Amino acid sequence: MGEVCYAGSDLLNRPVDGNNIGGLTNIDEDEMPLPKKAKDMAPRDLIIIWDRPCKVVRTELLPTGLISFRCMDIFNLRGVTRRLDPDHICEVPLVSRADYLCTGVCDEKDSVILESDDGITRDDIKMPPSIVLRMQILFGLRKGREVIVTLVSSMGLERIMNVTLHTTPEPDKQRL
């Protein structure tokens, strides 16, 4: 089963326990953003800024009494800044991670073919924009290695954020 992370978690730097199909398809009450006051936010907390899930990098109390948040979008890693009143209610996004086995690449759609632990296959996830991650996926598949990708999901967005290559064990060769 995938991991769910709320504010204060170090989501992008922790190992994942198990695999499952990630993503938010039918958002119910349990998956809605959580409220938190701006004055209670701290570095490494998650926050929604300009309708994007972000990680707080730095907070600063301004002479005007406002709090300045320097954040990083968790998907495109772009920096964003927002100034808020200390009593402003911020939204904390629900973020999940799941590991999948990458079994192939669909060149026509520029997507990957992923398989979960329970055998469900999906091909709707785009190749990561990072050239390093793309090359790891292609290299691993060409060399016949087991390619495990970590898919991060939040607010209806999904992106491959990590690739791990494992050497597949060779069957024991019997001597005759």
Q: Can you put this structure into words, describing what you see?
A:
GO terms for molecular function: ribosome binding; RNA binding; translation elongation factor activity. This is Translation initiation factor 5A C-terminal domain-containing protein. One of its GO terms (biological process) is positive regulation of translational elongation. Residues 95-163 form the Translation initiation factor 5A C-terminal domain. InterPro entries: IF5A-like, IF5A_C, NA-bd_OB-fold, Translation_prot_SH3-like_sf. With 176 residues, the protein is mainly β. The chain has two domains: 3-22 and 95-166, OB fold (Dihydrolipoamide Acetyltransferase, E2P) (Beta Barrel), CATH 2.40.50.140; 33-92, SH3 type barrels, CATH 2.30.30. It has one helix at residues 131-142; strands at residues 3-5, 34-37, 46-49, 52-61, 67-73, 79-84, 89-92, 95-106, 111-115, 121-126, 146-154, 157-166. Strands 1, 8, 9, 10, 11 and 12 form a six-stranded antiparallel β-sheet that branches. Strand 11 and strand 12 (157-166) form a beta hairpin. The longest helix is centred in the C-terminal third of the chain and has 12 residues, at 131-142. The radius of gyration is 19 Å and the shape is elongated. The N and C termini lie far apart (44 Å).
